[in-house]
Design brief:
- There is one protein chain.
- The chain is α+β, with helices and mostly antiparallel strands.
- The protein is built from 32 helices and 30 strands.
- The strands form eight sheets. It has a six-stranded antiparallel β-barrel with strand order 11-12-15-14-13-18. Strands 5-6-7-8-9 form a five-stranded antiparallel beta sheet, with helices on both faces.
- The termini are far apart.
């Protein structure tokens, strides 16, 4: 019945309630989102009326397949209301709205009677099951078998309303739920309780998460996937009926396991209940309810990942079935998916995998484990132990994280492994046309609207590259036989999208004949050639037409069709060209040779139409199947469609003025153009971001140009002179490379998410045997014909095709001179006419491992055959008649501004280049590469550390951080006196959390290396800090305080273990802080050194001038820790006070001015790792002013901050901001 039935029932319930049908209920109204209902309840014993929020979780299945969730927004609800909400929660499945209100009102009435002292024998009408029974008692009526061996689709489905009468959750089942969730905690993930699930109920939602920095993703992958280190990847699991343990799920039919998944990212380890409910709501508007909250960083905000739709579909459609197949057939996830697709008919006979191996045969080793992912690589299904001790939520989380981290290796629709080839930063689909169609139709790809609004020049670039790649090409090179066959440079075409385009080329196509009015607003079909036009034209459909008297093809949208008058009212939306340039590439020359010019419609366009032909048009509806055309015809059709597409900036302006709209809502864009644009953006598997954001405007087409000029509605005829910023993406102006005037710059990266890690490993391997520590890498250009770049950004820099010969060996060709690469980058193709960039050539700037003696060749070009030895960093695009980054259109001005900017930058902000191997710009002078543009991991590897990898480092941290979790969540996991060791491996248990902590304190957390000093993998190019250089005797050391408490001591001991482990496993410059753990004699006083600040920061520059390499912090803890914040202050050097122009959140007395360190901002779940990180970030902040050192320090007159002045300055700052001063501040700060 669904949503219409639900809305009607809400109206019916409201009318009945208004007539007094249900005692105590004043009103029932629609909420703010679809499926949301608000109940207003009154009782004389309550001090105020109560508002109960109700959410229908499955509106499309209402009423039988739906269940309701209840909560109240009241910050302090009366106890009877809380009790009624919890108890009634399990009794609201399969009910109508009115029945739901009646059941809840009855339960609330009983709770109120009980609360005021009365007794009601009927209160236990739902308590039909003894809580001491084993949890299996909840499943006495087992589901009948439907013959579904592996949970494949079946028509048998037991809906919610067919279940037995709801019962209270038996205690053994709650204990099983908590035990299963404890295993998730022990595996290194975080568990968040959102509603009553796991507390008092076996139905509801649970959150499982892992922080992004634990996933070993490269910086490029995180940017491409729009996630950040502090974010959490969160899996929400909703159990619509009583929780099924893993062994029961495997035993019963898949359709009987009623579990739903959502996956996204969150700034906290768990979202709020409201956000979680919104994620499961049918309408996307539900997530908009918390818009006011999301403006505050302290509020949990759950949002979709770029891959959420694909993963959620996979989890909800296939996970349970794949789980059953794995258990019964002993396959790994990949093999189970192949088997499942075969059984469901997805695979063809030729694609069918072999039958499952015999029981007992070992499964394949997890590739995540093989890659060094100690925790992500675990497979809970393969762990030894009784079957009834395995956790279903843990298996689901491991499954989700596997396909998230490895998403670029699998098809986003069928999830089969992609063929080996280009390793992408962005995931895509396989070569099956059905997968491509479903990928686009079901919205699994990136939101092209978001891409246009944030990175419009990137979208313009992709469209422009595609446009040049669909023009015929005939090339030859040195040592290569001339190609006589004309072909398109593009390697893959959008087959499978089911595009409908006008068939303007085929000689078998019969156009409709019509007369067109002078203003081109109406077509009249009054002749024989117009017969049957009704079958092809309808309002909102598109058509193309051309007349003998005019060049080009007009594209129009049908506004109205009058069958009686045989007319069609149209709006001309664009015009496409009628000629094509075929390019013959001449290698090593400055430009192309135009081999031929031909019209795509030979014999049709007549130079002198007869009078009888004036006003006659050939009409081609958009109804030809794109997939059935030959490649050349496909290219021509794509070009005509793209000619109608407005400029990307214009589309962005329209989207900005029409929030929540899509491309298909814009009348000027045909369905074919919208699908083609979405394919162009979605199929890009590289990571490209704008450096230039000045808003550029295309110049009007010059006379004689083949580019269609204005005259038609919607044609791009904007004038020059507009200014502003293009896109809402991140500002990367600091990453601009000076000295390349007239070139627009993009950050450019390719390869799989671990490509950067492999590059770093290769770098370390070479550094272990070659003296390259001072200059470990070099930079070089790569140029290629502009028609090749569409394929390059999708398949990478390889040597698959031979276009210009390989006179110097097999490999990728690079040059340190831009002029050399430019000669290979020119193209003679027509540019996309509506481009705001008007691209004429492209170059990439690449970072290469400095081992030129191992190159295939080094003169006159670098020829590199090792694909892991080079990384793309920039893409340079030359825009014809175009401006550079300031948008003035004056090259001399740009040159001057670049020169002035170069003088303003300090030498240390640039990457040091190897003498004799510098990279040269178009002026013939060496270019300076911003240090901020180069990942830290690729710089200055230390010899003898080849075993250290960023992958292992990042994954090891999974074990370190659990301090951010809500204390209540942890306490729930430890309920029932089952004290499993939360921090230990899954197979270990201890008597209590305290004993596990004490045991950890006795272990050598550093492994084979001593834990202090830090891991001496010091990248000398990144830091001048020396561990152990601080004279601790110059600092005041306190004796253990008299106010020490057992709780604080245990918490601090645990924090020290985590930090010690973290420091022993991370590179010094990446960590950014250092502690001498061996010197700690008082748990309540820590000395921490912050170091390795970005050299471009004013603070780092002042420190260098002052001859100091670290900022010394003192952290003092009180007896109330972790419920009271620590006191953090700078000891030395002294900072410039705020009143004198300083910043960095350091007060005049040296204390840190941060709400986090006050009673109003502190949370007991805050870890000291996060505190140190946030203190460091505050010092690095440039807002409102950058941190600077006191001038006395600069002059060599050093004086440490005192504790008394720090306390006074902290109290003044806290009160001025309206924050709460910690109650025991002075006791904590004085350490006595």
């Amino acid at each position: 019945m669904g949503f219409k039935k639900f809305r009607a029932d809400v109206s019916t319930a409201a009318q009945k309630v208004a007539s007094g049908a249900i005692s105590g209920v004043l009103s029932v109204t629609n909420g703010d989102s679809d499926g949301n209902v608000v109940i207003k309840y009154h009782h004389d014993s309550l001090t105020r009326d109560i508002h109960i929020q109700v959410l229908a979780q499955d509106v499309s299945e209402y009423p039988d397949g739906n269940s309701f969730l209840l909560w109240t927004d009241d910050p302090d609800p009366p106890p009877p209301v809380e009790a009624a909400v919890k108890v009634a929660q399990d009794c609201l499945s399969g009910l109508s709205v009115y029945e739901m209100v009646a059941v809840f009102a009855g339960r609330l009435e009983k709770e109120i009677v009980r609360d005021v002292g009365g007794e009601d024998d009927s209160l236990d009408e739902y308590d039909d099951e003894d809580e001491n029974d084993d949890y299996d008692a909840a499943y006495d009526a087992d589901y009948p078998s439907d013959g579904d061996e592996f949970g494949l689709p079946s028509s048998t489905f037991r809906s919610f309303h067919q279940r037995a009468k709801p019962v209270d959750t038996p205690k053994p089942l709650l204990q099983r739920i908590r035990r299963d969730l404890r295993q998730i905690k022990q595996a290194g993930y975080k568990v968040g309780f959102l509603d009553s699930f796991g507390r008092t109920a076996a139905t509801g939602i649970v959150s499982i998460s892992v922080r992004v920095d634990k996933l070993a993703l490269s910086d490029e992958a995180m940017e491409a996937w729009d996630v950040k280190f502090p974010d959490y990847v969160v899996l929400l699991i909703r159990f619509a009926k009583k929780y099924d343990p893993l062994e029961r799920v495997i035993a019963q039919a898949a359709s009987h396991t009623e579990v739903t998944f959502r996956i996204g990212k969150c700034n906290k380890y768990k979202p709020s209940l409201h956000q979680a409910l919104g994620a499961f709501a049918e309408s996307t508007h539900a997530l908009a309810l918390d818009n006011s909250e999301t403006k505050h960083a302290d509020v949990a905000h759950f949002e979709k990942l770029f891959i959420s739709n694909s993963l959620e579909s996979f989890l909800n459609e296939s996970f349970i079935s794949l789980l059953k197949i794995r258990e019964n057939s002993h396959l790994d996830w990949e093999g189970a998916n192949e088997y499942f697709l075969t059984r469901t008919g997805f695979c063809t006979e030729a694609d069918q995998p072999p039958q499952p191996p015999a029981p007992g045969q070992a499964s394949q080793t997890s590739d995540l484990a093989a890659d060094g992912h100690d925790i992500l690589g675990r497979d809970h299904l393969l762990e030894e132990g009784p079957a009834n001790e395995r956790s279903l939520p843990l298996v689901a989380m491991q499954f989700a994280m596997r396909y998230f981290v490895k998403c670029t290796e699998y098809c986003l629709r069928c999830h089969r492994r992609l063929e080996k080839g280009f390793e992408a930063l962005r995931p895509y689909v396989c070569s099956d046309p059905l997968c491509l169609f479903q990928y686009m139709a079901m919205g699994f790809g990136p939101a092209v609207e978001h891409e246009i609004l944030t990175e419009p020049y990137v979208v313009d670039l992709l469209v422009s590259l595609c446009y040049t790649a669909i023009q015929p090409f005939r090339g030859y090179g040195y040592g290569v036989a001339p190609q006589t066959e004309t072909k398109l440079p593009i390697r893959s075409l959008p087959v499978g999208l089911r595009l409908r385009v006008p068939d303007l080329l085929s000689v078998t196509a019969t156009p409709l004949n019509a007369k067109v009015t002078a203003d081109k607003s109406r077509l009249v079909f009054d002749g024989e050639g117009g017969q049957g036009f009704v079958d092809h034209l309808a309002p909102a459909r598109w058509l193309a037409f051309r007349t003998p008297s005019e060049s080009g093809v007009f594209h129009a949208r049908v506004r109205e069709v009058n069958i009686a008058m045989k007319t069609a009212a149209i709006d001309v939306m664009g015009k496409s060209a009628a000629t094509w340039a075929m390019i013959q590439q001449l290698p090593g020359t400055a430009g192309p040779a135009l081999d031929a010019m031909y019209g795509p419609y030979p014999g049709v366009v007549q130079p002198h139409p007869t009078p009888a032909e004036m006003g006659i048009a050939d009409v081609y509806p958009y109804d030809a199947e794109f997939d059935s055309m030959d490649d050349t015809s496909k290219g021509i059709a794509m070009r005509h469609v793209l000619d109608t597409l407005p400029s990307i900036l214009e589309i962005g302006d329209w989207l900005s003025s029409h929030p929540h709209s899509t491309l298909r809502s814009m009348e000027r864009i045909s369905p074919a153009a919208a699908s083609l644009l979405r394919w162009i953006v979605s199929s890009n598997r590289s990571c490209i971001f704008q450096v230039d954001r000045s808003r550029l405007v295309t110049q009007p087409a010059q006379k004689g140009s083949e580019t269609p000029a204005g005259g038609s509605k919607g044609q791009n005829t904007r004038c020059q002179g507009l200014s502003g910023v293009a896109g809402k993406g991140r500002n990367r102006e600091h990453e601009r490379i000076l000295g390349m005037d007239g070139w627009i710059q993009f950050r450019f990266a390719q390869g799989s998410p671990d490509k950067e890690l492999r590059f770093n490993r290769a770098l370390q391997e070479v550094a272990a045997r070659k003296p390259i520590h001072k200059n470990p890498t070099i930079f070089a250009w790569h140029g290629s014909n502009i028609a090749n770049w569409h394929s390059i950004v999708r398949t990478g820099l390889d040597f698959q095709d031979i276009r210009c010969g390989r006179a110097y060996g097999h490999g990728v060709y690079f040059s340190p001179h831009s002029s050399t690469s430019i000669s290979y980058s020119s193209g003679g193709q027509h540019a996309w006419p509506n481009s705001d960039l008007n691209i004429t050539s492209c170059l990439s700037l690449n970072e290469i491992i400095n081992a030129s003696d191992e190159f295939v060749a080094r003169t006159p070009h670098f020829v590199v055959s090792q694909l892991d030895w080079h990384q793309c960093r920039y893409l340079f695009v030359q825009a014809h008649g175009r401006v550079t980054h300031n948008g003035t259109g004056n090259k001399s001005t740009n040159k001057g501004s670049d020169h002035q900017a170069g003088r303003a930058l300090k030498k240390e902000t640039f990457y040091p280049q190897a003498p004799g191997l510098e990279i040269y710009g178009q002026s013939g002078k060496p270019l300076q590469i911003p240090l901020s543009a180069i990942p830290f991991r690729t710089i200055g590897p230390a010899a003898g550390t080849t075993s250290l990898s960023p992958t292992k480092r990042a994954v090891h941290q999974l074990e370190d951080s659990d301090g951010e979790e809500d204390a209540e969540d942890v306490s729930i996991l430890l309920t029932d006196d089952e004290h499993d060791a939360i921090d230990g491996p899954p197979t270990k248990k201890s008597a209590s959390p305290a004993s596990s902590m004490d045991m950890a304190m006795t272990q050598d957390v550093g492994g084979a290396r001593p834990p202090t000093p830090a891991n001496i993998n010091i990248y000398r190019a990144m830091t001048d800090f020396e561990p152990g250089s601080l004279d601790l005797s110059s600092l005041l050391r306190l004796a253990p305080p008299s106010f020490a408490t057992e709780a604080a001591t245990k918490s601090l001991s645990r924090e020290l273990v985590r930090l010690q482990t973290l420091q022993s496993r991370m590179s010094l410059h990446e960590l950014g802080w250092y502690m001498d753990f061996d010197s700690i004699s008082n748990l309540y006083q820590w000395i921490v050194q912050l170091h390795s600040f970005n050299p471009s920061l004013p603070l780092a520059q002042d420190m260098k001038k002052a001859g100091t390499t670290s900022v010394v912090l003192e952290v003092r803890f009180g007896g109330g820790y972790p419920f009271a914040p620590p006191f953090v202050r700078v000891v030395r050097p002294r900072f410039l006070p705020f009143m004198e122009g300083g910043g960095g959140h350091v007060t005049a007395g040296g204390a840190m001015c941060m709400e986090l360190l006050t009673s109003s901002g502190w949370s007991p779940v805050s870890s000291m790792e996060s505190v140190l990180l946030q203190v460091r970030m505050a010092m690095c902040s440039l807002e409102p002013k950058p941190a600077r050192l006191d001038r006395r320090v600069m002059a060599g007159r050093k004086k440490d901050y005192g504790v008394a002045e720090a306390i006074e300055a902290f109290e003044r700052a806290v009160r001025s901001h309206g924050w709460a001063v910690p109650q025991d501040l002075r006791v904590t700060a004085n350490g006595v």
